[in-house]
Design brief:
The protein has 177 residues and is an alpha+beta fold. It has seven helices and six strands. Helices cover 59% and strands 15% of the residues. Bound molecules: zinc ion.
Length: 177
């Protein structure tokens, strides 16, 4: 799971990107394991392990069960990584990103824009008209802005995002089978 780029990227947003944290997560993924066991097998201080586990917990990426040890009367915490949640969080992010890009694309395709040759501020038709096609900042005459290039960049971004997410879904599917 940690080999999947989008997953790794997201985990490193939640916890700081370093070797220790990677070891802790690697130990937790696909295991039901206590914080002590993680500390033991990674050789990382228990406080550091707990700090990372709670960060994951706060981001809904890990859960724990609390049990009382009958001999010592101490509580043990058995942790699991939430595979389903990270996948649904990443799907949600993807949907949001695509719909934002599509809104921008729609606005570029359905409006005309005017640009100030001096300071390169851009205005839509309504604002340009309101200002009699003069820049509201510097009064320079506005030029019509050819946004074909901008549109092609947005389309490329949408395509790239979709294919990145398709790859991600394939990798996830392969994990499950
Ligand atoms: Zn201007």
């Amino acid at each position: 799971m940690l080999k999947i780029p989008l997953i790794k990227e997201y985990l490193f947003e939640v916890v700081e990107k370093n070797e220790e944290n990677l070891k802790i997560i690697d130990c937790l993924i696909n295991n039901k394991i206590t914080d002590e066991k993680i500390a033991e097998s990674t050789n990382i201080k228990i406080n550091t392990v707990r700090k990372i586990l709670y960060k994951l917990y706060d981001s809904h990426l890990a859960t724990y069960e609390r049990n009382k040890d009958k001999e010592t009367n101490w509580f043990t915490y058995t942790w699991t990584f939430d595979n389903e949640n990270i996948v649904s969080e990443l799907s949600f992010r993807h949907e949001t990103k695509i719909s934002k890009l599509e809104d921008i694309l729609e606005s570029e395709e359905n409006n005309s824009f005017y640009i100030c040759p001096k300071d390169e501020n851009r205005f839509d038709f309504a604002v340009a008209l309101q200002n009699k096609f003069k820049c509201p900042n510097c009064s320079t005459e506005l030029n019509w802005h050819d946004n074909e290039y901008r549109i092609s960049i947005i389309k490329e971004k949408i395509d790239a995002s979709i294919s990145e997410f398709n790859d991600f879904e394939k990798l996830i599917k392969n994990l499950k089978t």
